[in-house]
Write a structure and sequence with these properties.
alpha/beta; 3 helices; elongated
């Protein structure tokens, strides 16, 4: 008889063909080798030169400071808590809508305290916040 039915099912192929994976990896490797040197080269730009100008400051910014013990003061007046800080900042914003803040913070103050003060200034509606540092 010309037609025979197999008595057993053919075994499943248990080996993984890695040739396509190797081909893809080699293509990716070549692509990264070609593009990597292009990413590290800087583009030279000749920037225009101008004379120094003074900032247009209509009003003196508020002096907000946090000392090494974590005590907050606004224009050298002590602040007890964040709600008092927010109300004083809102009052200053009502007097001058372009008010800014210079933030003086001791380097030993934890960032969590600084973040709370920054959040209080944002809730008060003040968007101009500058950090004051000392030149090394």
């Amino acid at each position: 008889m010309a037609f025979q039915t197999p008595s057993e099912e053919p075994d499943a192929m248990s080996d993984i063909n890695v040739t396509p994976l190797v081909d893809v990896m080699l293509v990716l490797l070549v692509a990264f080798m070609v593009t990597a040197p292009l990413l590290t080269q800087a583009v030279r730009v000749n920037l225009p030169k101008t004379a120094a100008t003074a900032a247009n400051i209509e009003a003196e910014p508020l002096q907000l400071s946090i000392d090494a013990q974590g005590a907050i003061s606004l224009n050298k007046y002590p602040i007890n808590d964040m709600t008092e800080l927010e109300t004083r900042l809102k009052d200053a914003l009502q007097r001058n809508d372009a008010v800014g803040i210079h933030l003086y913070v001791d380097q030993s103050v934890p960032y969590a305290k600084i973040a709370k003060v920054m959040a209080a200034t944002q809730r008060a509606g003040i968007n101009k916040l500058s950090f004051v540092t000392v030149q090394e």
